[in-house]
Specification:
The radius of gyration is 40 Å and the shape is rod-shaped. It has eleven helices and three strands; from the N terminus they run H-H-H-H-H-H-H-E-E-E-H-H-H-H. With about 325 residues, the protein is mainly α.
């Protein structure tokens, strides 16, 4: 009958256990021959002992046995000494390393004593690394966005609300496609893989990224995206206003060639700009408009144009 079903120790387990047992035997043999007056101190200095999972309880039994004090006092003294070492460590991470290493060699009593401290240090380290990761992500995203807008300064559509531009970029970041994104027709977009057709960020859909991950990205990225989008949108709006003013000034200079209904709108548009005298603009506009008009219809055309002008000024006042 085969006995293969019986669990057998593998060679590694046997070797490890033999190594652990040899540490204990060496200490026992040493203590039986010891003739000095400070057994614990001398044992720690003279006898090598590799503490393993298999022999650490024996190690601490020997430690307490060789101590001249009671077991309780011996453990209390060790814990106090180790706590002083932990307290002297320069950073929380250094403290964590000491406690983590100790947990692999301490007996149950010492491990339980330091368990709450280990939990606190682990939590701090986890939060600290998470914070550093968040900061690194924000700086990386900020650098990426600055690079993209450097290629297309003022490229955002000035007539699209800031919240929509933020949504475009945030959605692209949530879908891990920021590297391929670019401003197309005033909106941050990516291209469809199959057709190359541009897709604005907020229309991008994907099931590849989980909801929880998207929420984390949103929390970590929104402020950074808004920080970059705001100034870029202001540049786009300033450029749009400048282009509009240049177009209005160009039309204002050729008022005498425009239709009657168009001329009133052009004059009213010029009145709104800062640094321009309303009275002087109206006077120059009417003068230019009348310059080449048919003398027989000039007054009638001027009255009609003035009506359009007043209508537009009234509408703008109500905005």
């Amino acid at each position: 009958m085969s006995l293969d079903f019986i669990k057998k120790d593998n060679i590694t387990d046997v070797v490890n256990r033999e190594h652990s047992d040899s540490q204990v035997r060496r200490s026992v043999e040493w203590s039986e021959k010891y003739q000095g007056e400070a057994p614990l101190k001398d044992w720690l200095q003279e006898v090598p002992f590799d503490i393993t999972e298999e022999n650490r309880e024996e190690y601490w039994s020997i430690y307490k046995h060789l101590s001249p004090n009671s077991d309780a006092d011996t453990m209390s003294a060790y814990i106090g000494e180790k706590q002083r070492e932990i307290n002297a460590a320069p950073t929380a991470l250094d403290k964590l390393f000491i406690v983590q290493d100790g947990m692999g060699t301490w007996n149950e009593e010492i491990s339980q004593h330091f368990a709450p401290q280990l939990a606190s240090l682990n939590l701090y380290a986890t939060e600290d690394f998470a914070h550093k990761g968040t900061v690194a992500h924000k700086k990386s995203l900020e650098s990426t966005l600055i690079g993209k807008f450097t290629q297309t300064p003022g490229g955002l559509d000035a007539l699209v609300p800031e919240a929509i531009h933020i949504k475009d970029i945030l959605t692209i970041e949530q879908q891990n496609r920021m590297e391929e994104a670019t401003v197309i027709n005033g909106r941050m977009s990516v291209r469809e893989i199959e057709t190359g057709k541009p897709i604005v960020g907020m229309n991008l859909e994907s099931d590849d990224v989980g909801i929880e991950e998207q929420l984390v990205v949103s929390d970590n990225s929104y402020a950074t995206i808004r920080k970059i989008v705001g100034p870029q949108l202001n540049i786009a709006r300033e450029m749009t206003v400048a282009k509009k003013r240049a177009a209005d000034e160009s039309l204002f200079n050729i008022l005498d060639t425009l239709d009657v209904d168009d001329a009133g709108v052009v004059i009213s548009n010029m009145v709104k700009y800062r640094g321009i005298s309303t009275e002087a603009t109206l006077a120059k506009g009417i003068e230019t408009f009348r310059k080449n008009r048919n003398p027989h219809t000039r007054d009638r055309d001027t009255i009609r144009m003035a009506g359009k002008l007043i209508d537009n000024l009234t509408k703008r006042a109500n905005l």
